Amino acid sequence: MEKNTRLILALDVLDSDEAIRISKAVAGHVDAIKVGYPLVLASGLQIIEKLVKYAPIIADFKVADIPNTNRLICEQVFDAGADAVIVQGFTGHDSLEACVELARERKKDIFVVTEMSHPGALDLMQEAGKAIAKMAADQCASGVVAPATRPERVKQIRRIIGEELAIISPGVGAQGGSASDAIMAGTDWVIVGRSLYQSADPAGAAAGIVREIKKVIKDS
Ligand code: C5P
């Protein structure tokens, strides 16, 4: 994934025509499009090959199974044309290794969830977040998912993983996080969903976030 605008669209719409319309509108403003269960369950895995012409596709399936099943899932997703898969880290080193090994064979990316961006992530997930980040670094995953809603956690996770791995951060806009705070904390890409796909002007909204990101980088 090329680091250009540093913006990723989270495309959680249910209709494939709407997904294509929004992807076309934001193409050029985003470095990748993240699709997950809502869109894929509603319109089928083949939506990936329809969207890949607008931007690389990150499949957010938060894969969390035994190693063999993880590998089978990632194979299907890469075969469908995705460039990256988001997987859970809490299932342990062998489950993660199965995904990372396959991604290496296919020259694709795996991003590991450290902790999620919503309030409930504090109940159980946060406690394991730093250990998961270390595991992702030890396994040489492409990067981790860390919450833009908690920039201080992004900073801590950056210290653990070093500069080799990327951080992608959801939670900007609808969940209250700010793109500039996340970038200043060490995020490589911010992930934005509702603030873009529910906008009357997704391209304008995306351009606005990209301007904010470029300004904070220039001023820092
Ligand atoms: O609409 P919004 O901008 O809140 O969308 C955030 C996206 O990021 C959703 O697709 C959500 O599933 C995803 N996500 C998240 N927290 C994580 C991982 C993924 O919010 N840790």
UniProtKB/TrEMBL annotation:
Domain Orotidine 5'-phosphate decarboxylase per the UniProt entry, residue ranges: 6-209
Function: Catalyzes the decarboxylation of orotidine 5'-monophosphate (OMP) to uridine 5'-monophosphate (UMP).
Keyword Lyase: yes
Organism lineage: Archaea, Methanobacteriati, Methanobacteriota, Stenosarchaea group, Methanomicrobia
InterPro entries documented for this protein: Aldolase_TIM, OMPdecase, OMPdecase_arc, OMPdecase_AS, OMPdeCOase_dom, RibuloseP-bd_barrel
UniProt keyword Protein biosynthesis present: no
Gene3D superfamilies named in the record: Aldolase class I
Reaction(s) catalysed by this chain's protein: orotidine 5'-phosphate + H(+) = UMP + CO2
Alphabetized Pfam families for the sequence: OMPdecase
Assembly notes: Homodimer.
Pathway: Pyrimidine metabolism; UMP biosynthesis via de novo pathway; UMP from orotate: step 2/2
Molecular function via GO: orotidine-5'-phosphate decarboxylase activity
SMART domains to which the protein is assigned, alphabetical: OMPdecase (SM00934)
Protein species of origin: Methanolobus halotolerans
EC number: 4.1.1.23
Biological process (GO), any one: 'de novo' pyrimidine nucleobase biosynthetic process
Keywords from the named record: Decarboxylase, Lyase, Pyrimidine biosynthesis
Amino acids binding substrate: 12, 34, 60-69, 117, 170-180, 193-194
Similarity section: Belongs to the OMP decarboxylase family. Type 1 subfamily.
PANTHER family, per database record: OROTIDINE 5'-PHOSPHATE DECARBOXYLASE
Full protein name: Orotidine 5'-phosphate decarboxylase
Active-site residue list: D60, K62, D65
One GO cellular component term noted in the UniProt record for this chain: cytosol
